[in-house]
Design a protein that fits this description.
248 residues; alpha/beta; five-stranded parallel sheet; four-stranded antiparallel sheet; 12 strands; elongated
Length: 248
């Protein structure tokens, strides 16, 4: 699942009047953990953006009620931090330039593949600064504390030495606990979407991360509340809070 760094998944407002494209893209985004609201007109898109917090807008330029360029301009004026990707079947370069000048961050020409759209989204979201984890910049789950900026991990009052990929994998999971994170999202964020090696690398890294955390918990002078790294077969992983004393 993709997040902005806070607990909630990335929210996508999808403005597209074509039924086939709309259903295909909505399903593809949801399967990768995005929270999607699909509307079919520019007016309903603007209303939705004003009603609910939105991280990303996917905007078709050829809408039935108003020009997508005007929608992009109004979205940018009212929501300066939102990421806007325009989707266009218009082949003229001037249309793309006008769309970007109106406030869009990027564009995709129709027809486009879902793989390319997802890669573009990941690339843009990685470049955006994450939301702060807390007032002190730390993420805490149970007795586990992760300082993402300093790349430090502590269990109780002791530091845990992690390899770079182990830390990055933990950082993704700890920033949105109790949420299912797909293998695809973890591979893209930790190893980059252009990784061509085996996804078994993810499982090996997770096993090593678990061993290090369990060893640190065993070596602690007093009992510590260690979160669980739960395997979701056929999907990915989830970081769960520690069980209460005596819990099953």
């Amino acid at each position: 699942m993709w997040t902005t760094g806070a607990k909630d998944p990335v929210s996508v407002l999808f403005i597209e009047d074509d039924e086939v494209i709309g259903r295909h893209v909505e399903a593809g985004l949801r399967s990768h953990g995005y929270a999607v609201t699909w509307v079919r007109t520019g007016g309903s898109g603007l209303a939705e953006a004003d009603r609910s917090p939105i991280d990303v807008v996917l905007l078709d330029l050829g809408l039935p009620d108003m020009d997508g360029i005007d929608v992009a301009r109004q979205l940018r004026n009212g929501h300066p931090d939102v990421l806007i990707l325009i989707l266009t079947a218009r082949s003229d370069e001037i249309d793309v330039i006008v769309g970007l000048d109106a406030g869009a961050d990027d564009y995709l020409a129709k027809p486009f593949s879902m793989t390319v759209l997802l890669a573009r989204l990941r690339a843009h979201l990685r470049r955006r600064p994450p939301a702060p984890a807390g007032p002190d910049g730390l993420v805490r789950v149970g007795d586990l504390t992760v300082d993402i900026a300093a790349r430090r991990c502590r269990l109780g009052d002791r530091e845990v030495e992690l390899r770079p990929k182990e830390f990055e994998l933990l950082a993704v999971l700890v920033r949105h606990p109790q949420e299912a994170v797909s293998r695809e999202a973890l591979m893209a964020e930790v190893w980059d979407e252009n990784w061509f090696g085996p996804t078994k690398t993810l499982d090996v890294t997770m096993s090593s991360l678990r061993r290090r955390l369990r060893a640190a918990a065993s070596d602690a002078p007093a009992p510590v509340a260690l979160p669980a790294l739960t395997t979701l077969r056929g999907h990915g992983y989830r970081l769960d809070p520690p069980k209460p004393p005596g819990g099953e």
